[in-house]
Amino acid sequence: MDLGKAIALRVPAIRKVWEQRNQLLEQAVAVSPPSSSLSEVINVGRYNDPEWMKLHHELEAYATDKHVFQHTGGEVYRKGWEWTHCLYGLSKLGAIRPEAIALGVGAGREPVIFWLADRIRKVTATDLYGNERWSNNVGEEAPAAILEDCKAFCPKPFKAENVRFENADGTALPYDDNSVDFCWSLSSIEHFGGVDAAAKAIAEMGRVTKPGGIVCVATEYLILDQDHPEYFTKAEIEGKLIPAHPSLSLVDGMNWKLPPLEYLTDPVDTDSADVHRLKHHVIMKSGHYRWTSFMLFFRKN
Are 16 and 165 in a shared domain? Predict the structure, then answer.
């Protein structure tokens, strides 16, 4: 046994870190399903796909947050991956059609909204716009002003007549059954009140989506097996989120492969100024928690 390991096993705090390191290493080399699956933990390999990157470049023109795009920020950044991969998957699954009607849940001011407005018939973006508690907790992701002037939140002209912004509770959507062609929600449902509320939000998206339609959801994956009020373990994802609605099925399984080791060993500390850095903005940490983004694509039976 080497000296570092011997010390680690004798000091409880260091032993915990050592155990977490070994868990990450085991997951990094674990056998995973083929990378062709659209449902996946954040996949930095997508940045080597010319078709995916073409969409990444397109989407940046609709975004005010330029730093999350590789060609403007210079790095792989998980929010840029979420936005791009959502639209990539929806495109691959045939959801982006001129006659389509879409619903965004917890959509805020995402560039996804404006990109879709130029390509489909109708987009309804929902959130708790202007809610004081929400704004204080998560910043300016859902500004009240967007209800009056959505053009001010997109740096390029778009078909604003195709978009409607509305206040709505993601766990009790005020829309009819089978009324939209696809739904999306990106890193929002984890804020709805725990895993049961998140599952309820997915069930609601399943309810309002037409048979044959697509539901795309991104949220937070706890890399280590820990309890957290907002982020989800693999067991919770498989046990509660994926089976949230009886008519929703993953379109092509789930790829649980983690990002490369260089990202796993260089997490962004959200409790310090480190949260603002660009490099390796993929794995996040707060205290002993480690998490990142994952995305699910469902089709309604």
Answer: no
pTM > 0.70 = yes
Same domain, 181 and 289: yes
The pLDDT assigned to 23 comes to 65
Q: Which domain holds residue 23?
A: 1-30
* pLDDT given for residue 24 in this prediction: 60
Do residues 8 and 114 share a domain? no
Query: Is residue 30's pLDDT more than 90?
Result: no
Residue-wise pLDDT tens digits, 193-243 = 999 999 999 999 999 999 999 999 999 999 988 899 999 999 999 999 999
Domain count, the chain: 2
CB neighbour list of residue 156: distance below 8 Å, 6 or more residues apart: 61, 62, 114
Same domain as 9, residue 42:
no
Based on the domain organization, do 67 and 143 belong to the same domain?
A: yes
Q: Based on the domain organization, do 42 and 181 belong to the same domain?
A: yes
Q: Are residues 164 and 188 in the same domain?
A: yes
